[in-house]
Design a protein that fits this description.
Elements: H1 4-16, E1 19-24, H2 26-34, H3 55-60, E2 63-69, H4 79-96, E3 101-103, H5 107-116, E4 119-126, H6 135-143, E5 146-150, H7 174-186, E6 189-191, H8 197-206, E7 211-213, H9 230-233, H10 236-239, E8 242-245, H11 249-252, H12 254-269, H13 279-291, H14 299-313, E9 318-320, H15 340-349, H16 354-382, H17 390-394
Parallel strand pairs: 1-2, 2-4, 3-4, 4-5, 5-6, 6-7, 7-8, 8-9
Length: 395
C-alpha cells in the first residue's frame, strides 16, 4: 500500500484529471449474471459481491470517463444483434443514472462531463466479428455511439489475425485494410488490443488516424501474445496513438502466464469457457486457486509496464485500460475500480510528475479521440462511404 501522503496526492490529482479508462466489460457481466436486470445489479449501491464496478467505487477511484465495452463472444451464432443488446445496456445505464453518467460521443463531450462532475460514458466494440464483415454495420455501430472497435478478439476473423490464434490472412486482408479506412472516415478509433503483431503493423501502415490499444501491456516486460512489442510501441509517436496499460495479472506478471494456462485448462475440463465469470465458473476457479496459489500482481507490477511503455512510446502515447469485469482476477491493490489511486501513488513514488500523470490519466485519451474526429472530417470531405464487400476485395 502506498504511503498516505502519496495516496492523498494521487486523489487530488484525479480530482483535476480523472482516469479516462479504455476498457470495462460491465455490460457483458450484466448480460451473463442477470440478463440486463438492472434492478438486480443496481450500480448506485455496493456491488462488490458481484462486480468490479459500481458508481460509489468509480467515484472513489477517480474515474471521469469510461469506454464501456460492448463485447460479445466471437462464437455466438448472431453477434450483431447481441452487440446491439450490449449497446442498449449501456444506454439503459446512462438513462438510469443521469446524475452520475453522461453519454459522450466526442472529446468535447468528455470535457463537458468532467466539468459537470459526471462520468463520460463512451462505447467500444470488442472484436470485428461484431460487424459480420459489413461496412454498413460498422457505420451503424458508429451512429449508435460506438467510438472504437477492436479489430479482433481472441479468434481470427476472415479479414484479420488475432494474437491468440494461428496465423490466417497474415495480418490484415484487403478487406481488413478497407475496414480501417472506413473507421478513419467515420471517426471510430482503430483498437489494436487482441490483434496479432502482423495485424498491428498492417493497421499502422494503413490508418491515417491515431490508433489505440484499449487494454494491452508491454511484451518486453511480460512475454504474452496479448501484449505490445517494442517496435510497435515505438511507432506510436509518428501515428499519434495511445497504448492503454491493462491490469490483468496474466498479461502483466510473467509468473501468472503459466499459472493461467493451467487454470484455463482446468476450466475446460469442468465444462466452462476460460473467460466465464458466472458464479458456478468462479467456484471452479477458486477451487483451483486454493489448490494452486495464484501468483500475485500489484500496482507496482503495472507500473513496471508503464515505465517501459513510457520509455518506448513517450509520455504522450500511454493511458490506462483496466479491463475490470472482464477478468476473473485482478492485482492485489487494484481489486476493482476504486483502486486507481494506488497506481497513481505508485507512479508518484517513482518520480512521475503531475503534468505527466495528467497526460496518462486524462489528456492523452481525450486528445486521441479528438484527433480521430479531425481526420474523419477531412476524410468525409474527400470521399463517400465504402460499399466494398469481403468477397469483392478478398475473393
Amino acid at each position: 500500500m502506498a504511503p498516505t501522503t502519496s495516496l492523498d496526492e494521487a486523489r487530488e490529482l484525479l480530482r483535476q484529471f480523472p482516469v479516462a479508462d479504455g476498457h470495462n466489460d460491465l455490460p457483458w457481466a450484466l448480460r451473463e449474471q442477470v440478463r440486463y436486470d438492472l434492478d438486480a445489479r443496481d450500480l448506485a449501491t455496493d456491488q462488490s459481491a458481484h462486480l468490479h464496478t459500481d458508481l460509489p467505487r468509480l467515484r472513489a477511484g477517480g474515474v471521469g470517463a469510461q469506454f464501456w465495452s460492448v463485447y460479445v463472444r466471437s462464437d455466438l451464432p448472431e453477434p450483431v444483434p447481441a452487440t446491439l443488446e450490449q449497446i442498449d445496456c449501456v444506454q439503459q445505464l446512462i438513462a438510469r443514472h443521469p446524475a452520475d453518467l453522461k453519454a459522450a460521443l466526442t472529446a468535447a463531450d468528455m470535457e463537458a462531463a468532467r466539468g459537470e462532475g459526471r462520468l463520460a460514458s463512451l462505447m467500444g466494440a470488442e472484436g470485428g466479428h461484431s460487424i459480420a464483415s459489413s461496412l454498413a454495420t460498422l457505420r451503424a455501430l458508429y451512429a449508435l455511439g460506438v467510438r472504437y472497435m477492436t479489430l479482433t478478439h481472441n479468434d481470427n476473423i476472415p479479414w484479420a489475425d488475432s494474437a491468440t490464434d494461428e496465423p490466417g490472412v497474415g495480418g490484415l486482408s484487403a478487406f481488413g485494410r478497407e475496414v480501417v479506412r472506413e473507421m478513419n472516415r467515420e471517426g471510430m478509433l482503430v483498437d489494436l488490443s487482441h490483434v496479432a503483431p502482423t495485424t498491428m503493423r498492417d493497421a499502422l501502415d494503413t490508418t491515417v488516424a491515431p490508433v489505440i490499444f484499449s487494454h494491452s501491456s508491454s511484451r518486453a516486460v511480460c512475454d504474452h501474445p496479448r501484449n505490445i512489442p517494442d517496435d510497435v510501441l515505438e511507432r506510436l509517436p509518428a501515428n499519434g496513438g495511445v497504448a492503454m496499460v491493462t491490469f490483468v495479472p496474466k498479461f502483466v506478471l510473467q509468473a501468472a502466464v503459466d499459472w493461467t494456462a493451467a487454470a484455463d485448462e482446468n476450466m475446460r475440463e469442468h465444462g466452462f469457457h476460460p473467460l466465464d465469470t458466472t458464479s458456478e465458473a468462479m467456484k471452479v476457479h477458486r477451487a483451483f486457486e486454493d489448490a494452486h496459489p495464484r501468483p500475485v500482481a500489484t500496482a507496482a507490477t503495472v507500473a513496471d509496464h508503464l515505465d517501459h511503455m513510457r520509455e518506448a512510446a513517450g509520455i504522450d502515447h500511454i493511458g490506462i485500460g483496466g479491463d475490470y469485469d472482464g477478468t476473473a482476477f485482478t492485482p492485489d491493490d487494484l481489486h476493482d475500480v476504486s483502486g486507481y489511486p494506488n497506481l497513481i501513488a505508485e507512479l508518484l513514488s517513482r518520480g512521475w510528475s503531475k503534468p505527466d500523470l495528467a497526460k496518462l490519466t486524462w489528456q492523452n485519451t481525450v486528445r486521441v479521440l479528438g484527433a480521430a474526429e479531425d481526420v474523419a472530417r477531412d476524410e468525409r470531405s474527400r470521399r463517400g462511404p465504402s460499399n466494398a464487400t469481403l468477397a469483392q476485395l478478398d475473393g
